[in-house]
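Hi everyone,

Forwarding the result from last night's run.
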Amino acid sequence: MRALVTDIQARLVAALPTGTPVLLPEDREQALAGRKPGQAGGLSGYLAAHPNGYVQVEDPLSISSDGVTGVFWVPVASLARTADACLELAHLVSRALCGFPHDPGPHREVTPAQPTPLQPGVYICRPTYDALTIDGTHTGAVQE
């Protein structure tokens, strides 16, 4: 499902403010990585370096299949220093993936989320979006 997560990442990079990191599943440790001397470490330090927050695309979860089509759910987390900033970033992610009622995007939000404190000064909003595959290929199609 590499094509699915890289497609989501590309859509988000194009839609989010310039410089907003959009991390792939294998990059999740990047935000927790070591720091330079004199800098805060962990999530607080990463968010200090990226004040608009960042987005973490997670591994797709297989939900159903009929042998030809498959449905996957993909958690996409928005993290920021305040609840308001987190909600704003999550809203931009939702618009990039779901579109608008009059112009739907390729995904639907299947589990909503609200900003939740993860640790002091770090909020996370982690909704899940669906994705359709046909014969193992991500379609990017809108599901009804």
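Residues 2-32+40-134 form a domain with the STM4215-like fold (CATH 3.30.2000.10).

Cheers,
N.
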